[in-house]
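Annex B.
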Amino acid sequence: MSDIVTFGETMLRLSPPANERLEDVDEFEVRAAGAESNVAIAAQRLGATATWLSKIPETPLGRRVVGELRQHGIETDVVWSHRGRQGTYYLERGGKPRGTNVIYDREHTAISTAEAREFDADRIKDARVFFTSGITPALSSTLRETTANLLNAARQGGTTTAFDFNYRRKLWSPEEARETLTRLFPGIDVLVIAARDARTVLGFEGDPRQLAHKLGSQYDFTTVVVTRGSEGAVGWHDSVVHDQDAYETETVSPIGTGDAFTGAFIARRLHGDDVPKALEYAAATAALKRTIPGDVARVSKEEVDAIVKEGGTEISR
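Sugar kinase: predicted structure tokens.
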């Protein structure tokens, strides 16, 4: 039995060294990367037991993903497939004005065919939290139904459901996302959403505090967390909104910051923290993640404790 079970695709991320261009690169740095597995790892790092569910091709690349995730201490429960391929993405880093470019290569992947009946429903029902994100139903029509079915299974088993809206414009349009994801809302207890997505995709107006109130009032969520980038986040719970500023950080790699935040928030709520304290730990974990290359929050609970205790000042080594 795990504290948290997550469901989604983990890709292989291929990145040129430093700020080299993809068209010139001779070698790549390779890492496993996926929102749901990133959340599982962050939660595990802060003391929660975590399991990642997925459908993976029975290939060397699929085994590479599973092997790397297991090295982070999370349990993997995968459906091995002889159909479909391993998803990848390419990350080309660059400073201003070029910026960072992400190129997805995730069509016809094994997970796009995943159905709820392929997974052990009892594993989800026995967990304390089931988590997935808006990326998963964006990948195929099959996964839209599967995501809904797994959320319903969790709800039926009394498992708390947590969902990161996680809109990706390279995967689908705001209209498609709104139509699909709002249909999932009745099965969600805890919603995490960026303020920009609440405005762009859902059409809500107002500052983050107002957005949190509107989302919490309009839908039957237990908790709503609205992230606001460099300004931190707000959390709505029991009709009260709590503010959390971001911790000062020197950014090495911003990718995966939101996943680190969400994983830490869930872990601390499982630990028994109230929403303000969980937000504090989530913000500290996100700040630490920004100092770490790759997509995964390779942090320790002691590091996060120190950031929270010291109010964001630099950790002594």
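The CA atoms of residues 111 and 255 lie 22 Å apart. The first helix runs from residue 35 to 45. Further annotation is deferred to the next reporting cycle.
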